[in-house]
Amino acid sequence: MTVVGPLGVSVRDQALEADVQAGLAAVEAGLIEATKSDVPFITETAQHLVRAGGKRFRPLLLLLAAQFGDPYAPGVVPSAVVVELTHLATLYHDDIMDEAQMRRGVPSANVRWNNSVAVLTGDFLFSRASTIVAGLGADAVRIQAEAFERLVTGQIQETAGPREGEDPVAHYLDVIAGKTGSLIAVAGRMGGLMSGASEPMVEVLAQFGERIGIAFQLADDVLDIASDGRESGKTPGTDLREGVPTLPVLRLREMAAKDGAPADVALCELLDGDLTDDARHAEALAGLRAHPALERARQDALSFAEEARRMLEPLPDVPAKDALADLCDAVADRTK
């Protein structure tokens, strides 16, 4: 058994491994080329996160999805570059809104330069993604545009918060389906579409992508609390410090509202306070790490990963199907 990529995805077929490794190398070269500018400073800022690395989860998924058609079709690698460029652009913008200090183990662009440079670099990456996708046909342009709308809608929903009477957990799952699931669904859809897979298979791959994308984000939520930062490349508790209500926090509030346990209420009150204070932040982080809400959030991530696995059942039994199933295990393993 061999592995592909930093997620540790098992690939049990040597030909598939060779295809995916070659595809990821081509995507990496495409990302470097797409982020070059005649203005050296723009090249530097645009390549800041590209060169920092990353899991390349979306290109990996797209390349595996392309195995259900012709994986060597000319649109496969460019579409993977489009999806990753779009993702990178959102990271620049997210770090501004979250006032993040670190991204992928390096200072975030807003910290290394400033907010203006970061937001404009994100816009530059969106424009480069749009240029590439324009060469892939009208369907690809429509898919990209619809995903971008869902991305922005999810961000606005997160900013606005749940409506009065709306379940905060249900609202949050809608938010991440838009912010995260939508683009990973595009990876599945574009991999199938660009490779010429059948329409039913393309739809299955897109639905799988959305489910695994939600699981991926929920795993990140758990990591933000549970990890030491080496896995996520971000400072632990970043979302907590910025008051972002991720799933462990929402599950805690749900438990506190239901049972009213004094310790749970006290932890909620701590979370409602000023967590820019290092001591209070450390206390809140320790409290959440020890709380059953973290395990509940971990189980939620596992549930979506299993749902994604079930989505694969209609696909033919080929090595790429096994590799996609292993993605579910890889996402789940990140929560441990």
Features:
336 residues, mainly alpha, Farnesyl Diphosphate Synthase, two-stranded antiparallel sheet, two-stranded antiparallel ribbon, 16 helices, 4 strands, disordered N terminus
Task: Provide an overview of this structure.
Belongs to the FPP/GGPP synthase family. It comes from Streptomyces litchfieldiae. InterPro entries: Isoprenoid_synthase_dom_sf (IPR008949), Polyprenyl_synt (IPR000092), Polyprenyl_synt_CS (IPR033749). Keywords: Magnesium, Metal-binding, Transferase. The chain has 336 residues and is an all-alpha fold. The chain has one domain: Farnesyl Diphosphate Synthase. It is built from 16 helices and four strands. The chain has helices at residues 14-34, 40-46, 48-52, 57-65, 76-98, 109-112, 115-134, 138-160, 168-195, 199-226, 238-241, 247-259, 262-272, 278-289, 292-311, 319-333; strands spanning 2-4, 9-11, 102-103, 106-107. It has a two-stranded antiparallel ribbon with strand order 1-2. A hairpin with a 2-residue loop joins strand 3 and strand 4 (106-107). Helix 8 packs antiparallel against helix 9 (168-195) and helix 15 (292-311) runs antiparallel to helix 16. The chain is globular and about 60 Å long. The two termini are 22 Å apart.
